[in-house]
Structures are given as structure tokens and as C-alpha cells.
From TrEMBL:
Listed SUPFAM superfamilies: Cryptochrome/photolyase FAD-binding domain, Cryptochrome/photolyase, N-terminal domain
Lineage: Bacteria, Pseudomonadati, Pseudomonadota, Betaproteobacteria, Burkholderiales
Keyword DNA-binding: no
Pfam family, any one: DNA_photolyase
Keywords associated with the record: Chromophore, FAD, Flavoprotein, Lyase
EC number: 4.1.99.3
GO molecular function terms listed in the Swiss-Prot or TrEMBL record: deoxyribodipyrimidine photo-lyase activity; DNA binding; FAD binding
Matching InterPro entries: Crypto/Photolyase_FAD-like_sf, Crypto/Photolyase_N_sf, Cryptochr/Photolyase_FAD-bd, Cryptochrome/DNA_photolyase_1, DNA_photolyase_1_CS_C, DNA_photolyase_N, Rossmann-like_a/b/a_fold
Cofactor binding summary note: Binds 1 FAD per subunit.
GO biological process, one term: photoreactive repair
Name of the molecule in the record: Deoxyribodipyrimidine photo-lyase
């Protein structure tokens, strides 16, 4: 039998369920990635994610080649197409005369629609599309409440997740053992294109600390494992190297989430807390973040309406600001010109690197919804365009959490004070100064709210507010009252 593995957000060869199943079932196996024009065509021509994927494919191609060579097969490698999967996959399946196509589940609504089309077209030619879980540890309805419903609160979900998580669920799907079935790539099938070939330009990706491909994930993971025990204490401080920075790799599957969860679980068991009331170890806290990721994926699966609507329907009664002034406020937020240094530095981090620290995502999302009074969907869309790690389930979950409309969200009356957040999580303004060097000469205490500085301090720091740095676009105390009034409709 012949089979094709269609890679999408599983760009690796290690611990790969679809590849494992294909290699076990078929005598000849090829792997393909399609640069999907439905996704790519609307994007700006410079997009770090497209470059990250392209570079990662180079790594996957090399891994496939090496795996095949170790079994004496020359000339294997990744086939890379640029087009519409609904055409490209059935056509390739016909050219290679495969009986089956294997792929990993993708539960985003657009991906589901695409896969349904591909499945239908393949079926017309008698080819099966087999899809398997890969992206999360538990998906869909694998973790349910005692009464068989979907969880909508995180902590009980997490407890049920941990209870269900026997070693089997974290064990790897081996590939190397069966790699002798990898078949040489036909000469006329294209390999990894250049960015220019698919109509894109280079970005600053290579200047960032985001090495791509499975090898890049390995590098970041090795570095993180040296720090994981301190994750709990460091993860909230954007100026500190606390988190793993693995989100983009998790998004594109250049690392296996099962492996990460296994590593965290092993580390957690190796270093239990010294006393019952001692703070949780870093690996334990980090494992919870991976479980949040599964949590939001199952929310999207059970409630796909969250893509457009509030999880809690009454929150769609809120009347967000709109019109010219709202548009100006939105532009100030996007461009990092709100006059609140921590918010602005965070938005500049996003623009310049495609990454934003988790604490800052919460701060800027709260600021957009509860200080500017703007619909969370506007912020969600901006993040979707700019985040390297953009993931529909996690992004929607994060935005609805901040807007209080979501599953297990922040209560609506809890409104982050952007100045307090800044004092608490960037006390010396080290993060702020990295992105707003014009504020560098302000003393630590004044950097969080420059408009409160005395003229003499501003003069000493060489800052003219309104010229070198904006005055605040809103007054937090006033905005807070407006927000409480705006959200009052959810009580009725
Ligand atoms: P680490 O702290 O090292 O965490 C490890 C991994 O756990 C992350 O890589 C991520 O896969 C997962 N994770 C961590 N926190 C969360 C969370 N709250 N929800 C779901 N998964 C989590 N994460 C995305 O991957 N894509 C998004 O588009 C995204 N949008 C967000 C939007 C908002 C408004 C908020 C508040 C959070 C969002 N997050 C998103 C979650 C979180 O901010 C990022 O996953 C994290 O900052 C990525 O950095 P890291 O890999 O260093 O994380």
C-alpha cells in the first residue's frame, strides 16, 4: 500500500502520530506540506510566521532525508506545494497513486471546513483521509465532567485532566523504527521553495531569539529546562527570561506537546514541594499552562460560536465604543501611543518581534476593553495578525478572559490598573526602557506614569510630554467608572 502524510501544524518527524500510523500501514510513504493560498493570499507580504514555517520545512525535509538514509533509502524528502489543498492534495494523491492520506486533527473551524472538502474529493477517488490527534494532549471530549458534559471551569478540568493522564497518553509515537517505508521523492515534485517563490519577503525573524524548525525548538527547550524550576517566580516579569518561548513551536508542531508534558510531569515528580503549603514547583506551574492550552482547545471544540460571540451570551449586550474617536483610540493602542508606558512597550514588543509576554497580553487586553471601552474582537483580530504564536483557541480564550465574557474569565468588576501592573511587574521599568528608550532617563518611580512627574523631573530627563512621549489617551479612574457602568447590562 502507498500513503501520503499531509503535514500542517505538526512540522517535525519525532513523536508524530500521523507519520507513525502511515509508516506502519503502508510500504511506501511520502510527506507533503501545502502552502495554503486561502491562508496566505490575504496576508501582508512580510509575515514572520510564513518565514518561520518555510525555515522549519527545511529542517523537516532534512530529518526525513536522514531517517530514510538510515534505512538505506536515498532521495526521500518533503514535497512542498503552493496552492489550494482541496485541489493540491487530491491531485498529488492521484499522481502518487496512494490509497490513504494521513493528517493530524485541526479543530479550528476553517481547517475543519478545508479538511471536509479534501476528504470529500479524496473519497471520490477512493482514497481515505485518516486524521489523528496530535496538537494537544487531550482533545474534544476526552476529558469530561462526571455527568458527561464539557468543563467550563479550569481547575476541575485540570484535576480531571491530571487524573486521566496515564503514561500512555504522553508516550511518543515512534517514527525512526518504521522509516524504511519512506519513499524517494519523485523528481518532478517540488521541494522547499524560497520565500520569494511563494510571494513573500524576509522579515526580521533571524534577528529574533526564535530559532525555527525542530532544531530551534530543541534549542529553546534545552535552555528552558535549565530555568524551569524558577518558572513560578519569574514568569510574570516581562524583563526577566522566565517563560519557555515555545509557543510558536507548539503552534506549528515543531515540538511534541506530549513530550513537553512528559518532561514537566517527570520534573514535577522529581521535585515535590518541601511542605504542603510551599509554593508549587516551576514544572508544576508550567504543566498547568500546557493544560490551559488543552482547556481552550476543548472550549473551541464544544462551543465554536466563541469565534464570533461571547462565551457568556449576556456579554454581547455590552455596547462598545465606536465611531471616529474609538477608531483613534484603537490606532493609539495598536501603535503603542496610549501614554501608558507598560501598555505601549508591550504593543511595540508585539510589532517588533511578534511575541508578547503573557502578563502583558493580559494588561493590554484589559486596557483595550476596560480602559478604552473597545470590543475585545478588535484586539483579538490585531493579535491574530501579529502574533507569531497566534492560535485561535488560546487567543480567543485569552481575550474573552480579559473581557470577562469567557469561560472561567476574570470577573467584570476586576479591572487592571495599568500603572499598578507596571509598578508590580516591571518595577525598575527595565522592560519599558527596552521599547521606549526615550523614557530611559526617568527615575524608576516615575516611569510607570510619566504624566504625574513634576515638570522639573521631566526637564531633567529631557522629556516633553506630547512631543517625545504621548499624554495618556484616557484617565484610568474615569475609564474604570465608565466600564462598570458599561458592564452593568450583564447583570440584568
Ligand atoms: P510559557 O509560559 O512558557 O507557557 C508554555 C506554553 O503553554 C505556551 O507556549 C502555550 O502554548 C501554553 N500557554 C501558556 N499560557 C497559556 C494560556 N493562558 N492559554 C493557553 N495556552 C497557554 N497563546 C498562544 O499560544 N497563542 C495565542 O494566540 C495567544 N493569545 C493570547 C491572548 C491573550 C489576550 C492572552 C491573555 C493570552 C494569550 N495566549 C496565547 C496565552 C499566553 O500568553 C502565551 O501562550 C504565552 O505568552 C506564550 O509564551 P511562552 O511560550 O513563553 O509561554
Amino acid at each position: 500500500a502507498r500513503a501520503l502524510v499531509w503535514m500542517r501544524r505538526d512540522l517535525r518527524t519525532d513523536d508524530h502520530a500521523a507519520l507513525h500510523h502511515a509508516l506502519k500501514a503502508a510500504r511506501q510513504v511520502w510527506c507533503v506540506f501545502v502552502f495554503d493560498r486561502d491562508i496566505l493570499d490575504p496576508l501582508p507580504r512580510a509575515d514572520r510566521r510564513v518565514e518561520f514555517i518555510r525555515d522549519s520545512l527545511v529542517g523537516v525535509d532534512a530529518e526525513l532525508r536522514a531517517l530514510a538514509v538510515s534505512h538505506g533509502v536515498e532521495g526521500a524528502g518533503l514535497i512542498v506545494l503552493h496552492g489550494w489543498p482541496k485541489q493540491a492534495i487530491p491531485e498529488l494523491a492521484a499522481r502518487l497513486q496512494v490509497q490513504a492520506v494521513y493528517a493530524s486533527h485541526d479543530d479550528e473551524p476553517a481547517a475543519q471546513a478545508r479538511d471536509a472538502q479534501v476528504r470529500g474529493r479524496l473519497a471520490e477517488a477512493g482514497v481515505m483521509l485518516h486524521t489523528v490527534k496530535d496538537h494537544v494532549v487531550f482533545e474534544r471530549s476526552e476529558v469530561l465532567t462526571m455527568s458527561g458534559g464539557a468543563f467550563s471551569v479550569f481547575t476541575p478540568y485540570k484535576n480531571a485532566w491530571l487524573k486521566r493522564c496515564e503514561p500512555y497518553f504522553l508516550s511518543a509515537w515512534p517514527v525512526a523504527k518504521h522509516a524504511g517505508a519512506l519513499a524517494p521523492k519523485p523528481e518532478n515534485e517540488p521541494g522547499v521553495p524560497t520565500l520569494e517563490d511563494i510571494g513573500f519577503q524576509r522579515t526580521n525573524l533571524h534577528q529574533l531569539r526564535l530559532p525555527s524548525g525542530p532544531a530551534g525548538a530543541e534549542e529553546l527547550l534545552t535552555d528552558f529546562l535549565e530555568r524551569i524550576d524558577r518558572y513560578g517566580e519569574t514568569r510574570d516579569f516581562p524583563a526577566v527570561k522566565g517563560p519557555s518561548y515555545l509557543s510558536t513551536h507548539l503552534r506549528f508542531g515543531t515540538v511534541s506537546v506530549r513530550r513537553l508534558a512528559r518532561l514537566a510531569m517527570d520534573r514535577k515528580q522529581a521535585s515535590p514541594p518541601a511542605a504542603p503549603d510551599a509554593p508549587r514547583g516551576g514544572a508544576d506551574v508550567w504543566l498547568s499552562e500546557l493544560i490551559w492550552r488543552d482547556f481552550y482547545h476543548q472550549v473551541l471544540h464544544h462551543h465554536p460560536r466563541v469565534v464570533q460571540q461571547a462565551f457568556k451570551p449576556e456579554y454581547d449586550r455590552i455596547r462598545w465604543e465606536h465611531g471616529k474617536h474609538a477608531d483613534d483610540l484603537f490606532a493609539a493602542w495598536c501603535e503603542g501611543r496610549t501614554g501608558y508606558p507598560l501598555v505601549d512597550a508591550a504593543m511595540l514588543q508585539l510589532a517588533q518581534t511578534g511575541y508578547m509576554h503573557n502578563r502583558l497580553r493580559m494588561v493590554v487586553a484589559s486596557f483595550l476593553t476596560k480602559d478604552l471601552g473597545l470590543d475585545w474582537r478588535r484586539g483579538e483580530a490585531w493579535f491574530a495578525l501579529h502574533l507569531n504564536d497566534f492560535d485561535l483557541a488560546a487567543n480567543n480564550g485569552g481575550w474573552q478572559w480579559a473581557a470577562s465574557s469567557g469561560c472561567d474569565a476574570q470577573p467584570y468588576f476586576r479591572i487592571f490598573n495599568p500603572v499598578n501592573q507596571s509598578e508590580k511587574f516591571d518595577p525598575q521599568g527595565r522592560f519599558i526602557k527596552r521599547y521606549l528608550p526615550q523614557l530611559a532617563a526617568l527615575p524608576d518611580k516615575l516611569i510607570h506614569a510619566p504624566w504625574l512627574a513634576r515638570p522639573v523631573d521631566l526637564l531633567a530627563a529631557n522629556i516633553e510630554l506630547g512631543k517625545h512621549y504621548p499624554l495618556p489617551v484616557v484617565d484610568h479612574a474615569v475609564a474604570r467608572e465608565k466600564t462598570l457602568a458599561r458592564y452593568a447590562v450583564v447583570k440584568g
